[in-house]
Design goal:
This protein is α+β, with helices and mostly antiparallel strands. The N terminus and C terminus are likely disordered. The strands form 6 sheets. Strands 10, 13, 14, 19 and 20 form a 5-stranded mixed beta sheet that branches. It has a 4-stranded mixed beta sheet with strand order 5-3-8-9, with no helix packed on it. It is elongated, with a radius of gyration of 34 Å. It contains 19 helices and 20 strands.
Length: about 700
């Protein structure tokens, strides 16, 4: 007889589980009911948890708000590299919760991980905090207060976005409005979020005496992995047709593991299977801090009453979340319910995916509109050249060569503002250009070296008798973080020191010295203090628009102080940053329907012993989503609007797959997670228990 068939006899119905079974432990709950908030059914302990989450999210999102621009403008990485590193960091933050969840559910418990591990080591702490804090708040409620627990997750998400709202507004101001060593103060922008982590630790610890602290239930992650592995290997070893089939593939672990653990693993795997399509949603949502911020740098942040920095645009997301959560909970969902439509959690998540997909379609349309308003870039074996005539009379400029002749059809008048750059073709990547200058009765031949894909200015000057020219490379990067780039040409015979702000100053050499580009905040500059070795004076530079690059020529004025002649090298951003509002509104509505619902869904479907594990698995989908963005940014090679369309279409396909999977998913009720009392082995009486003991000895 097959030995496996023998195990199916009635005797084995009472055979014991292995010694790996986790012994049950009583919950460490207060004997008296926990204190409530103002006579409601909400435990007072959740107030400390929510405030702690506010501070921790302030720290996290405040740091992330300036991270992309830190990579781009401080470390001088490319846009693709900055995007990739940003999402690699985000992915790591959402991978570590797996470790935090294992520690929380297995050894230390959620409270100790939060206070001792998570908040002490910020780098790894996000892995300790993320999977524990939401589930720990849910643990504060009794089962009879399930409705209040559902509303807690909305309040919890409100605290996340309140912290995010304030931090994404303040930290860009700390970066841009404060100068450190003559540059944007990234040290302060990162330091303030660090301080909030200390406050989070203090607040969370204050509520330690009133928390309900369910104890850890053994090494759950290891138990789950071993149970699954044993079920698979046992099924493979007993694949004969003579062996009776079992209802579920995990039932093949019954010879070694307790029935309750098998039931918990069944519930876990059903939800994990449903999580497979979710990373694509996060791939879109998390691009607010990378691709959408980079898009904002090419837009005009001047709203008339306030100048919005590109990284401050992210403040719309938490602001709209604070508006949308009560709007959806109190108005939209209730109206849908009154219409007789069953709007389950999974249906809400599917609608959230559709809204996020539409948001990226709108972002693609905005990107196309920006491209139409952006000056063309010089391609391979091309340069863009403008001529600036600083002489007293007009000058005729001719480029000598086969393909490039007269630079402009008409002569260039003195201090004439050029209407546009001229496109010149090169025979190699770098070459010498020969110019013929005709000024009065003088003819001058001059030579200058240039390199492909660059912008240049040919500055022409005279000293009363002769005429000279010099070639200056112009600003080539238009995305100046919503700032304004400017440089100076000093026609005076003395060096000038120019003060552009508290910590921004530069010196320009005498006799047509040319300064490097300096970035400043856009806005009005009616009085700019300047100084030579024997004189102080001021310049009126007027309005400096966002995204523009300016050239100021400092010249002598008869019987007056020196003045500045202003020329726009690169036009300002014309498309208002307010055009990003529709895409932020759509993606935030999608986030409220997807993420808030998903948090509560993950908790309600998790077995009591594995709530942090399932929360960590939910966060793991965020990590995978960021990896998707990283791969696309590095290897797609698509222009930006096409990349947005790609993400939009991918999410629509994933939404269809998720909808089909959701249709066949049956939500688990709390009573389904516990084995019925009349079927539990410990309740069996008499000789059967003795038989179990004897079998254990054998």
């Amino acid at each position: 007889m097959n030995p496996f068939q023998k195990n199916e006899s009635k005797e084995t119905l009472f055979s014991p589980v292995s010694t790996e079974e986790v012994p049950s432990r009583p919950l460490s709950l207060p004997k008296t009911p926990p204190p409530k908030i103002c006579g409601s059914n909400y435990p007072l302990s959740i107030a400390f948890i929510v405030v702690n989450e506010f501070c921790e999210r302030f720290s996290y999102y405040g740091m992330k708000a300036v991270l992309t621009l830190y990579f781009l403008y401080f470390l001088h990485w490319s846009e693709d590299t900055s995007t990739s590193i940003y999402h690699a960091f985000s992915s790591l933050c959402y991978f570590t919760p797996i470790l935090g969840a294992a520690i929380a559910d297995s050894w230390l418990g959620k409270f100790k991980v939060l206070s001792l591990v998570g908040l002490s080591l910020i780098a790894l702490g996000t892995g300790g905090i993320k999977p524990c804090v939401a589930a720990f708040g849910g643990d504060q409620f009794e089962e009879k207060h399930a409705e209040e627990r559902t509303r807690y997750f909305s309040v919890f998400y409100l605290s996340i976005n309140a912290g995010s709202l304030i931090s994404t507004f303040i930290t860009p101001m700390l970066r841009g409005d404060v100068q450190c060593f003559g540059e944007d103060c990234y040290a302060l922008a990162f330091g303030v979020p660090g301080l909030l982590m200390v406050i989070a630790l203090v607040v969370f610890t204050m509520g330690s005496k009133i928390y309900r602290k369910p104890p850890p239930e053994g090494n759950i992650v290891t138990q789950v992995v071993k149970c699954i592995w044993f079920a698979i290997s046992n099924r493979f070893n007993n694949r004969s047709g003579d062996i009776p089939k079992r209802q579920h593939w995990l039932d093949w672990a019954a010879e070694k593991y307790p029935k309750q653990l098998i039931m918990d693993v069944k519930a876990l795997t059903r939800v994990l299977f449903l999580y497979i399509p979710l990373p694509m949603f996060w791939a879109l949502l998390d691009q607010q801090g990378s691709r959408w911020t980079l898009q904002a740098t090419r837009m005009n942040g001047n709203l008339g009453f306030f100048v919005l920095q590109p990284d401050q645009m992210q403040v719309l997301n938490p602001l709209l979340v604070l508006i949308f959560i009560p709007l959806f909970d109190l108005v939209i969902y209730r109206l849908v319910s009154k219409c007789g439509i069953s709007f389950s959690s999974l249906r809400k998540m599917a609608v959230g995916m559709i809204l996020a997909s539409l948001a990226f379609a709108v972002a693609a349309a905005v990107e196309i509109k920006i491209n139409k308003m952006t000056p063309p870039q010089p391609g391979p074996k091309e340069i863009f050249l403008q001529a600036l005539n600083l002489a007293d009379e007009e000058v005729k400029v001719t480029v000598l060569g086969d393909e490039n002749n007269i630079l402009l059809e008409e002569s260039i008048r003195s201090f004439q503002k050029m209407p546009h750059y001229a496109q010149l073709h090169l025979k190699t990547r770098s070459q010498d250009f020969h110019f013929y200058l005709k000024y009065h009765n003088m003819s001058v031949y001059t030579k200058h070296s240039v390199e492909e894909k660059n912008w240049y200015s040919l500055i022409i000057r005279e000293d009363g008798k002769n005429i000279y020219s010099m070639m200056v490379k112009d600003e080539e990067n238009k995305t100046t973080s919503g700032m304004t780039a400017l440089r100076f040409v000093n026609t005076l015979h003395k060096e000038i020191n120019i003060s552009l702000g508290t910590d921004v100053s530069l010196s320009v050499g005498e006799d047509y010295g040319v300064s490097a580009y300096t970035t400043v905040q856009s806005g009005e500059y009616p009085v700019v203090h300047c100084r030579t070795e024997d004189k102080d004076f001021s310049l009126n530079m007027g309005l400096l628009e966002s995204g523009a690059a300016y050239l100021f020529v400092i010249i002598n004025s008869t019987n007056q102080d020196p003045q500045a002649w202003k020329m726009e090298d690169i036009p300002a951003n014309k498309l208002s940053i307010a055009w990003q509002l529709p895409q932020y509104a759509l993606v935030t509505a999608g986030e409220v329907m997807f993420s808030v619902t998903g948090l509560e869904f993950s908790y309600s479907q998790a077995p009591s012993s594995m709530k942090s594990v399932l929360q960590a698995a939910w966060l793991l989908t965020v990590a995978v989503g960021n990896i998707i963005v990283l791969v696309v940014a590095q290897f797609s090679g698509l222009v930006q609007w096409a990349e947005f369309i790609l993400f939009s279409c991918l999410l629509l396909v994933v939404c269809l797959v998720f909808s089909i999977m959701s249709y066949y998913y049956v939500p688990i009720q709390p009573q389904d997670l516990q084995e019925p009392a009349d079927k539990q082995i410990p309740h069996i009486q008499g000789n059967i228990i003795n038989l179990e003991t004897k079998k254990t000895k054998l």
